[in-house]
Design a protein that fits this description.
heterodimer, A: 490 residues, alpha/beta, Aspartate Aminotransferase, domain 2, Aspartate Aminotransferase, domain 1, 3 domains, 7-stranded mixed beta sheet, 3-stranded antiparallel beta sheet, 36% helix, B: 448 residues, 2 domains, 17 strands
């Protein structure tokens, strides 16, 4: 261990210290060796830390100080919609009647929780233009897989067993092809054209009677609206396939265009993105799925229904794909999303999209003179730049990202989508002020100038973070994935 | 419009439109074809101001009976345990909860190190070599374990015990359909996996044998016998385990498990109507490169300072796309943090003590119920749950219990043939002797 190293909690441990306060055992104590069969009473103690409550709080406070969140500063991570996470959401999710309700309580004792879920479904139906919504999937990727399993069930019900392929654009999120594989499909890639949009000719070439579905994000991951969406849907429907909407970018089109009106048959949403989840350092998320009428029978069960003012879980769904997650989804995240939607209302959600798009276009136009802009047209909620010009000077996009850290900004998404060289993908969101956008833009311009005049300062960045660039190759070559005292001293 | 989450002023807007070179915001949406353009506003509820909304949602929450106001004997996979106050204070630090996946390690060391510590603690409790950074929940972790096993053994059948949580088995069935994996259920005998049936069912096509420990009925499975059956057939031995129980029980790793999965909800994560909880996934070193989800590894910077990064990412969807071992992307990081804080607070001694208290109290409750004339089924060793048979529907009994301030146990008749009128009773360290005696008395009375 290096002197400057942040200690691991295990390194703070001292035998004899405790950080808990358990109730006294108030029942007669039986001999454990009688209660448990031979060999089943644990002998070796697990090496968990022995620390006081203050030790714990200081440790995690120190860790939090080594972490950047939206509350710390600007976080324009493309495709992740890092908007402000409202505090009322956190309060509401902690109400005892929401936080400490057991999922297997009798239905009449949880009508309030079911009412919230039902009303959230109703709101999401209107927002997406779909006919029914399930809140069961845990996150976007699970929503994708759920939607694809429903599409598979639909085709099979029609005796259509040859639909083995799912088409995804080359700009798609990595989860799309991975979800297709988990759902038992092969993935076929459709190319993007010069304009960054799905190449219709290529789509016609790959779409055939083996096509189960096309998965599409709209606006796509380049931040561009797929203008030919109706034609795209027609091509896929024409060969008997279904069209799937990846809702990662819904923040760009609320009250402007609904997936249900664009010809999509299935939609998933990322409630931790558009609807202020929060992101939690990587999760938990929530990935509701909306469907059009002909797919309703295949929804995961149970389905939440309302009958004469009473809410009930319906398990009698013979065509359902089954359960995708224990219980009813990530309720705690759904509570936060519902609170957010109710805080915004119809005018608010429309303004959200308008400001998200205004902010992105403003940034794009101000940065365009200094970086390559692969697609010179209005973007939606995010846009991509290319660091091609800087690369020629020996400064890579990774370097630019690291240099941004010196100014207290979280860098944009980099090297994604894969079809743009040295890609920088910026999503400001609507909750940032113009001052913040300007400050970030000014720093980006400064870095572009540094790349010309003083490339080393960018190449060697970051200079001000608690730690320098980390050796990822070493991490992967000889993985150390858990604390072991001996390894630390090696 | 003005809203506290939307900071742009009219002046800002004007300046920005001028920079872009358009007159109105609408022009920025001109690329949306007329035919699909949404007109007007969503037909949803009008916005509410903060005080009014809080009041409304507080009233909605108050309609739900909850474990803070009632004494709960309901478990079945989700438990009411002691949560150190410190847990919520740590996870409420917004540097943690408003961050995303730590893609930029230099400004995400806090999250990365916390997860590295989580991975270590899960390894310690389960007795395994490697644990990932979390899964959605125990049920999907179990399904992923089955898929990993099928991929690793190149076999297409998994055996799962009837004593595994029914909802986890449901989830497994759905995932198995996607992967064309056959799922065969091993029946239970007296509340534990029937080893004779297991030996009959396991064969050279079996990718995995999956059991739960303690099982859904609260009983302790004979892991040594299951291990032998699985490994004799060269199948993977998969154990779904309540990690809190492992404070007192010999860890599955000691019995030769290849994969241990489960849910860390008992460590500081509220029930919240079923989610989000926190799946975990632990394996032997041999399977390290097959683990789904994110892994945090230790490394160093150019000055030799210790640091942490996401590692072995070549397994993951954002690199391997359709060849990835799993499609998981977002996980349950914040809940893994909550579980870490709870495991840290309990520590080496507390985790033993809490687990032991559960054992003692459940045993006491079972004996007390017997004394009150209630029939106990499957009278073997248990952790913190057991099964009783009533002489009337569980639903009816639970209705009466509510009047006494008690949330009764789970109605096994809902999911198991032959267990009509049977209740699965959970007794954690939070149930007092008084509550247990009242519960036993009420159930005893209902027998008369």
């Amino acid at each position: 261990m290096n002197k400057k190293d942040q200690e691991l909690i295990f390194e703070l441990s001292q035998p004899g210290r405790i950080g808990y306060s358990l109730p006294e055992l108030d029942v007669p104590e039986a001999d454990l060796s009688v209660l448990l069969p031979a060999g089943y009473l644990r002998e070796e103690e697990p090496e968990l830390p022995e620390v006081s409550e203050l030790d714990i709080m200081r440790h995690y406070t120190a860790l939090s100080n080594r972490n950047h969140g939206v509350d710390s500063g600007f976080y324009p991570l493309g495709s992740c919609t890092m908007k402000y996470n409202p505090k009322i959401n956190e309060d509401v999710a902690r109400f005892e009647g929401f936080a400490h309700v057991h999922p297997l309580q009798q239905e009449e004792t949880v009508q309030g929780a079911m009412e919230l879920l039902y009303d959230l479904q109703e709101h999401l139906k209107e927002i997406t233009g779909m006919d029914e919504v399930t809140l069961q999937p845990a996150a976007g990727a699970q929503g994708e897989w759920t939607g694809l399993m429903m599409i598979r069930a639909y085709h099979e019900e029609n005796g259509d067993f040859n639909r083995t392929k799912v088409i995804v654009p080359d700009s798609a999120h990595g989860t799309n092809p991975a979800s297709a594989t988990v759902a038992g499909f092969e993935t076929v890639t459709v190319k993007s054209g010069e304009d960054g949009l799905v190449d219709l000719e290529d789509l016609r070439r790959v779409a055939d009677e083996t096509t189960a579905a096309l998965m599409l994000t709209n606006p796509n991951t380049l931040g561009l609206f797929e203008e030919n969406i109706l034609e795209i849907a027609e091509i896929i429907h024409g060969v008997g396939g279904k069209v799937y909407y990846d809702g990662a970018n819904l923040n760009a089109v609320m009250s402007k265009a609904r997936p249900g009106d664009m010809g999509f048959d299935v939609v998933h949403l990322n409630l931790h993105k558009t609807f202020t989840g929060p992101h939690g350092g990587g999760g938990p998320g929530s990935g509701p799925v909306g469907v059009k009428k002909d797919l309703i029978p295949y929804l995961p069960k149970p389905v939440l229904v309302k009958e004469e003012g009473v809410y009930r879980f319906d398990y009698n769904r013979p065509q359902s794909i089954g359960r995708v997650k224990p219980f009813y989804g990530n309720f705690g995240i759904n509570v936060r999303a519902y609170t957010y939607i109710r805080s915004m209302g119809p005018d608010g959600l429309k303004a959200v999209t308008e400001y998200a798009v205004l902010n992105a276009n403003y940034m794009m136009r101000r940065l365009a003179p200094y970086f390559d802009l692969p697609f010179n047209r209005h973007c939606k909620h995010e846009f991509v730049l290319s660091g091609k010009r800087q690369k020629k000077l020996g400064v890579r996009t990774l370097d630019i990202a690291k240099r941004l850290l010196d100014f207290g900004f979280h860098p944009p998404t980099i090297y994604f989508p894969l079809n743009v060289e040295e890609c920088i993908m910026i999503e400001p969101t609507e909750t940032e002020s113009k001052e913040t956008l300007d400050a970030f833009i000014d720093v980006m311009i400064q870095i572009a100038k540094e790349a010309e005049a003083n490339p080393e300062i960018v190449q060697e960045a970051p200079h001000t973070t608690v730690i320098g660039r980390l050796d990822e190759t070493a991490a992967a070559r000889k993985p150390v994935l858990r604390y072991e005292r001996e390894l630390q001293n090696a | 419009m003005k809203h506290r989450y939307l900071p742009m002023t009219e002046t800002d807007k004007k300046e920005m439109l001028a920079t872009i070179g358009v007159q109105t915001v609408d022009e920025l949406f001109a690329d949306i074809p007329e035919k699909v353009r949404f007109q007007g506003l969503y037909n949803i509820k009008e916005a509410k101001a903060e005080p009014a909304l809080k009041k409304e949602l507080s009233a909605m929450a108050a309609k739900n009976i909850n474990a803070k106001q009632y004494a709960s004997f309901l478990g079945a996979g989700v438990y009411d345990h002691y949560t150190p106050s410190i847990v919520d204070h740590v996870i409420s630090r917004s540097e943690f909860y408003t961050a995303y996946t730590p893609y930029q390690p230099e400004i995400s060391q806090g999250e990365l190190q916390a997860i590295f510590e989580f991975q270590t603690m899960i390894c310690e409790l389960t007795g395994m070599d490697v644990a990932n950074s979390s899964m959605y929940d125990g049920g999907t972790a179990l399904a992923e374990a089955a898929m990993l096993s099928a991929g690793q053994t190149k076999r297409k059948k998994v055996l799962v015990s009837e004593t595994v949580h029914p909802e986890s088995r449901d989830v497994l069935a759905t995932y198995a359909k996607g992967q064309n994996i056959e799922v065969v259920v091993i029946p239970h005998k007296n509340g534990v996996t029937d080893i004779d049936q297991l030996n009959e069912l396991v064969d050279n096509d079996t990718a995995a044998v999956i059991v739960q420990y303690p099982n859904f009925f609260g009983a302790i499975e004979s892991l040594s016998e299951v291990e032998k059956a699985a490994h004799d057939a060269k199948a993977m031995f998969v154990v779904s385990s309540n990690p809190l129980a492992l404070g007192a029980l010999t860890p599955p790793g000691k019995f030769g498990a290849d994969i241990v999965i489960g849910d860390a909800q008992p460590f500081g994560i509220p029930a919240q109507f079923g989610g989000p909880h926190c799946g975990y996934f632990a394996v032997t070193k041999k399977l390290m490169r097959k683990v789904p989800g994110r892994l945090v590894g230790q490394t160093h910077d150019d000055q030799g300072q210790r640091g942490f990064v996401l590692t072995l990412q070549a397994r993951e969807q954002h690199i391997r796309r359709d060849k990835a071992t799993s499609n998981i992307c977002s996980n349950q990081a914040l809940n893994a943090l909550a579980a870490s804080v709870a495991m840290t607070a309990l520590g080496k001694k507390g985790v033993r003590e809490i687990a032991t208290q559960n054992l003692q109290k459940a045993f006491f409750a079972r004996e007390t119920l017997k004394q009150n004339g209630v029939e106990v089924l499957f009278d073997g060793p248990i952790f913190n749950e057991f099964v009783i048979r009533l002489n009337k529907p569980v639903r009816e009994v639970n209705q009466k219990l509510l009047e006494k301030g008690i949330i009764g146990g789970y109605d096994l008749g809902l999911t198991y043939d032959g267990l009509e009128n049977c209740m699965l009773v959970a007794v954690t360290e939070l149930r007092t002797k008084e509550e247990i005696e009242l519960f036993a008395k009420e159930l005893g009375d209902s027998h008369e």
